[in-house]
Amino acid sequence: MLEGKKIILGVTGGIAAYKMTSLTRLLVKEGASVQIIMSPEAVQFVSPLVLSTLSNNQVLIHLHENNQWNNHIELATWADLMIIAPATANTLAKAAHGLSDSLLLATFLSKKSNIMFVPAMDEDMWLNPITQKNIDILTSLDHDILPVGEGFLASGIEGKGRMLEPEEIVLYVKENYGRTKSMSGKKILITAGPTQESIDPVRFISNHSSGKMGIALAETCYENGAEVQLILGPTHLKPIYKGIEVVSVATAEEMKVACDIYFNEVNIIFMAAAVADYKPMTRSSQKIKKIEEELELTLCKNEDILKGLGLKKKEGQVLIGFALESENEIENALAKLKSKNLDFIVLNSLKDEGAGFGYDTNQVTLINKKGDKFQSDLLSKKDIANFILSHLFS
Ligand code: CTP
Asked: CA 115, CA 138: separation in Å to the nearest integer?
């Protein structure tokens, strides 16, 4: 997701510097070009040779090296983003007061925007009002200061001041600096996961949906710059990005209410949830005791949420349904496309190995209103989301 992004990773002299090997690998894996600048102290904590190998670039440390001037202005202009991690109390203080006694700080001072500090220090240093004042100064200048974690610190005590883990830093970079604009301005409503229909206070009817496909769609739309509203049935999963708004629901009725609230203001609707078709006619207020040899449950139909949305769809809105079929797949999917007034339907066949509920992979046939069919390979759910989006906008 960071393909083509040019990132300077400024490493300063704290024990957490050793984690920059992982951070570098993760950034490179995401497609970023990484140029590492170390403070002279940082080389005590992590090897420049390892970092230059992992970043595929020579690590820069001093303003002058091998009789050559490292041009901090050119470096600052080159970079889309500068991450300073770990950012020690000393570095934060120097940065806040404009000191430039190293290549790293000179580059920071030459860079006008997109600067991210990832602090790491002992709790006493972190809580010291001087450090907090320095952070206030840097924040007021629109620099991005990531929070610190709490836990075991290098000094042996437990407390605040731990650097965020490399995975958390990369996620922050992706969410705040990596989103593309191909879907910006678009508002998307996505439903995902199962619904649960209560029998009594401890039991329910549901299905095996994990919500993975809908969550993958939500994340992909969000990565492409869209505003995403996710209505999520009961699942232990959630989207990785904080900026995706999630409304948690349990029953089909709750899902319908949530859909109705957002429907009018969105451009595209993906109904990926596996809504329970039936619910118990009555819900026992007390736990049903196992007295009888047989127990009969009478079920009644849940309202078809998607059909309701299809009826009130406005000009310009795009409605996409999902169909899970075990036989006569195309025929059934086409019937649903028509009867629910959809623009597209994503067909999942239970006959396809490795596709459907719970899997990390999926295989689909996307069908449009004209009946054109687009068949995917067996791909990760993230790639299926990209496959669907690419055909939606082609
Ligand atoms: N759907 C819905 N509300 C329901 C049932 C289904 O909004 N009460 C939506 C699903 O989210 C999906 C589409 O309708 O996008 C098709 O769901 P599916 O379960 O494949 O088909 P059904 O319409 O329920 O019909 P059947 O179970 O008979 O195949």
From this structure: 10
Q: Which residues are catalytically annotated?
A: 207
**pLDDT tens-digit map of 120-153:** 999 999 999 999 999 999 999 999 999 999 988 8
pLDDT at site 66: 81
Residue in the block written with tokens 């991005």? 144
Residue with tokens 């969550």: 215
- Say how many Å lie between the CA of residue 361 and the centre of ligand 1: 21
User: Which residue in 33, 32, 2, 37 sits closest to 17, CA to CA?
Assistant: 37
Pocket of ligand 1 (CB under 6 A): 252, 271, 273, 275, 277, 302, 304-306, 321-324, 336
**29: burial class by Cβ within 10 Å (0-12, 13-18, 19+)?**
exposed
Cβ burial 340-377 (10 Å sphere, 16+ → b, else e): bbbbbbbbbbeebeebbbebebbbbbbbbeeeeebebe
**Which residue, 388, 382, 383, 342, is CA-closest to 365?**
388
Instruction: Name residue, tokens 């809580």.
Output: 127
304 C-alpha to ligand 1 centroid (Å): 7
- 214-262 per-position pLDDT tens digit: 999 999 999 999 999 999 999 999 999 999 999 999 999 999 999 999 9
What residue ranges define each of the domains in the chain, with the CATH number in brackets?
A: 6-177 (3.40.50.1950), 187-392 (3.40.50.10300)
Mean pLDDT of 198-213: 96
Ligand 1: centre distance to CA 214 (Å):
14
